[in-house]
Amino acid sequence: MPHQNGEKKLLNRVHAYINSIKTKLVVSFLIITLTPLIYISYVMLQNASNGLLNVIVSNSLAHARKTAIDLRRFISHQQEVAQLLVNSDPALDQDIEKLTLLAQEHDRRYFAIEKIGVYDTAGRRLCASVDTIFTELPHAERILAETKSREYVLLDFKAGSGPMLAMSLNDRGSNSYGLLVIELNRFLVTSIISENLVGNSTRAFLVDAGGTPVVSVPESSNAEDLSLFGEQIRSFSSGVFSASAKSLKKPVLASMLPVVGLGWRVVLLQDQQEVYALVEAFQRNLYWILLFTILVAVIIALMISQNIALPILQVTRGTNELAAGRYDVRISVNNTDEVGQLANNFNFMADSLADKMRELKAAYEELKLRADTIEQKNIELDRKVFEVGVLYKIGRTMVEVGLDLEKLLDVIIDKAIEAACATRGSLMLIDENQEVLELQRVRIWDAEAGQTVAVHNFARNINIRVGEGIAGKVLQSGEMATINDPDSHQDFKQYDNEKNRVNQLVCVPLKVKNVTFGVINIVNRKDGQGFSRADTDLLQTMANQAALVLDNTKLFKLAITDGLTGLNLVRHFKNRLNEEIKRARRYGKIFSILFFDIDHFKKFNDTYGHQIGDEVLKQVATIFRGNLREDIDMAARYGGEEMIALLPETDARGGLVVAERLRQAIEAHEFTGHTSPLKVTISIGLAEYPLHSNEALELIRKADTALYECKKKGRNQSSIYSEQMGVVSEK
User: Fold this and answer.
1) Active site residues
2) What are the structural domains, with CATH classification, of the chain?
3) What is the DSSP track for 16-70?
């Protein structure tokens, strides 16, 4: 009986404790407090971990991208050095002895160059800077074929060697006779990759198109790890991948980017343990904070049970607000008892969480800022590389066109449209009187053809006076005008049809030494966006370059061209003749001289006047040029009504065919400028190099002798020089 009473008392005490307000307050407080705290910790852990992982991935790709760009820039620079050898006189002349000396000099001068070798089309070595380079070049014919479509070919690495560039060697006739092979310094390639490594466990690999590693940093790195990413390397150009396998000592994270234009890829491998160290450290700190918070919550619950419900309500509300993400919430309780302590502890916990969140946010923002900075620098660098490439192509194309003003105008407007990614454009030049702009070219972008095409049916009488309209004001001020909202511009006039509507316009001046002589109009970007500062800067730079070329072309034309006929002056002709003699001697070529004048032209001038005579000379010169080969033959006015032509790689009999065609064309032509059509005839003499002479002056004399022989025989005929004719007086 006493024992039963003791058990009953114990049960009553337990039941009383469970049902006491103190227990209920403790339990309620713990449930209300800990539930949102645990939820907050979980949300913070997930968000912060994901944010840090995104920054880590972006940072890894940024380092891989910088490595790829640095490698591309290094290879491009060495290709430019190799181009100097390819374009040297010894290379063009196939002078192997001098080419050997030049290769040795480049080998000594440029630290980036390890070895230089020259091979014939069969792959046999012709010369080398050092004997350690291989004596035979495998697959030389295939490599030579590839160089026809590319500036250079990147050869497969050999064990222990550096990258190898192969470029075609051509003689002065543009005939390929071999290959120039340059082995680059493997140490420099390794150094470029090493500069962009982060972390202690990072390994870097440079792999070829098939995924085979050719360079590893450090060199002791285990390349077998790459086999786990073989499918990604072959299937994707870039990305971040992770792998964990029994063959790996540690799980790794791989970042991969291509080296543009080379067919290589940069692969960075880093232990996931190191990559995720920051995330794990944050998790540990958060766990400790959570544990501390739970401990504090239990203590506070026991203490708060001794106080009234109102302070508990305040704490509950504060906890709910904290769970909602308001880390600045604080509890204001004036009690000095347990409830006040609870409030202080809650505020301390909120301060700790807020501090940690601020620290975490600051670390995140710093990492993000670094990644954004690297990305922005890469974008700017890509833009600069693009601009330099565009300007280089423009300059090279202008040089190839040479002094042909018509072709040069086509090149300028075509490249301007392409550089600005525009849909159409036009080019206008000031007239001789410096009063109006005359429309010279109109070009549009053909999306199907993938190139610009000419518009030939534009109104050539469109003339704009200086100071009128947008183009006229640009001509007057010499300052570029950029209009991305033409409807609001007072000087802008739209076309009536929607097809020709202008949405964006850039008008760029063509000027030399502060003298503006034309404008380039670029209309409508392909993407519909307005022209940016980068677009206008590139257009201005290109326009300045084009203006210099145009100005030089005009000056040269004036210096070598006869003002009346438009033919070359005799001084320029003789210079060209001497050059042709040197070329013919070197390569064993032949050529002919065609020399003619207008029959009875003095009598013609006396009859009809010199004004009519000048008009006849102009028309004869036009027919003369039309019967010669463009860009091959050369026509000149020798003096008065005498005209002369150089016919390269044409013997006297071939020249006689040309002479007869020219003579018949002039005889059949009705010359205008008089009240009634007029007729003239010509007499033509020919001489051949070296058959008749190997000296310039003597060739001209003998062609002149053949001309006078035609006059003796009645005029209006052609004749080839023979020894029976003798030689006329000096010309």
Assistant:
1) 641
2) 87-188 (3.30.450.20), 197-275 (3.30.450.20), 402-553 (3.30.450.40), 568-725 (3.30.70.270)
3) HHHTSHHHHHHHHHHHHHHHHHHHHHHHHHHHHHHHHHHHHHHHHHHHHHHHHHH
